[in-house]
Design brief:
Shape: elongated
Bound molecules: zinc ion
Strand content: 15-25%
Structural class: alpha/beta
CATH architecture of the largest domain: Alpha-Beta Complex
Largest sheet: 7 strands, mixed
Length: 387
């Protein structure tokens, strides 16, 4: 039997598609064999949470608790958890989970798992059990949980063990780490696992949000000498310069991004990372690729985007386009690596994050939409834990 049962928690519940996030009382039933109870300290806010709330991506049902960039402290471990080195009181980062059965999972490219949508959005890790979710409302209504194995927009969460990445941090070091699990891992993983630029490669990053800045910082960390930041906000471009960009382009100043890049580098650039999904940017950035150049698509393209590829040009210039989900990362290896880079001041994520008390989620969402902050992180410290 679990030590803690019928645990009282506070979580942001989305009651139906398009409904607001409402902070309310929920009950967690208790850990099952392969689950871990985590006291959530911080939750990063990712665009995906907002897209899912608004019905832009599928989810297993409503009401639901979202949140997929959690960090916190282990409170209880299920009897069947495979990682026997995990113990209560340890600090953990909660990442996405995968099917664990396919070739991509078997070979450590977890972000390449073809079942990401099923296991993170549609199903919970409890799919084989009769009660598929640990969360319920006070009136007994079941709430879809374990979004990305965690549903961490909550001060306590019963999570899938597959989402748990142990991290050797002090509790006071956790405040900027939550987005390592998705946003920063996506940007940095695209650079470290997929593009692998050489120091002499010219790398351009489109969109200076959390993913783009993390890509830029990771490229800088591995010694890339020429880094081009592209955005429409001057403040974000300045931030990029402070993180090591060598050139900045405000895409509003050019007819298309190809013209902006060719203005600086007439032969184009070697690698482009698109985090915007903007149809207009995508097509002109293809033309800004130099010989043997690669375009990595990271941002979710708007539904109307159609890539217009000149196949002969692609053949003759040996260009490539690659789609990248979650940086093709294995969270258990890349998160500790990025944490070490942060500790060595080579991956300065504290400069791109803004903390909000958990009660101020609406303000955090509004500021994110306005572009006045890059990465909002909710702190649960003002909400008392029941255990
Ligand atoms: Zn898989
Ligand atoms: Zn995310």
């Amino acid at each position: 039997m679990p030590k803690y049962e019928n645990i009282q928690a506070k979580a942001y519940v989305v009651s139906s598609q398009g409904s607001p996030f409402v902070l309310q009382d929920v009950t967690l039933d208790g850990v099952q064999e392969s689950e871990v109870l985590v006291e959530i300290k911080y939750t990063g806010l990712c665009h995906t949470d907002i897209v899912v709330r608004d019905g832009g991506m599928p989810i297993g049902g409503y009401p639901a608790v979202l949140g997929h960039e959690g960090v916190g402290i282990v409170r209880e471990i299920g009897s069947g958890v495979k990682n026997k080195s995990l113990s209560p009181g340890e600090t953990v980062i909660l990442s996405f989970h995968t099917c664990g059965q396919c070739r991509s999972c078997g070979e450590g490219r977890l972000g390449g798992c073809p079942h990401m949508t099923e296991v993170n959005f549609i199903n919970t890790a409890r799919s084989k059990d009769s009660i598929k979710t640990p969360i319920s409302l006070p009136d007994g209504t079941l709430v879809h949980g374990q979004f990305f194995g965690q549903s961490s927009m909550s001060n306590l969460a019963i999570v899938s063990e597959d989402s748990v990445v142990k991290i050797d941090a002090q509790p006071e070091d956790l405040q900027f780490l939550a987005p390592l699990s998705c946003g920063y891992l996506t940007g940095a993983g695209t650079v470290l696992n997929v593009l692998k630029p050489r120091p002499t490669d010219k790398v351009a990053v489109l969109g200076m949000g959390a993913v783009g800045l993390a890509a830029l910082a990771a490229a800088k960390a591995i010694g890339v000498e020429t880094l081009v930041a592209v955005d429409i906000f001057d403040a974000k471009l300045e931030k990029a310069m402070s993180l090591g960009a060598t050139h900045k382009i405000n895409s509003k100043d050019f007819v298309d991004i190809n013209a902006g890049i060719k203005d600086i580098f007439p032969d184009g650039v070697d690698k482009i990372i698109d985090t915007t999904g903007s149809a207009a940017l995508l097509n002109s950035s293809l033309n800004a690729l130099g010989h043997e150049g690669t375009l990595a698509l990271v941002g979710v393209p708007s539904p109307s985007s159609q890539l217009q590829v000149d196949a002969l040009d692609f053949l003759l210039s040996c260009k490539k386009i690659v789609g990248v989900i979650e940086g093709l990362s294995d969270p258990k290896s890349i998160i500790p690596k990025l944490f070490s880079l942060y500790q060595e001041n080579k991956f300065p994520i504290d400069k791109i994050s803004t903390l909000y008390p958990a009660e101020d989620l609406d303000k955090a969402v509004a500021d994110l939409k306005l572009g006045s902050v890059i990465k909002p992180i909710l702190s649960w410290s003002s909400i008392h834990s029941s255990i």
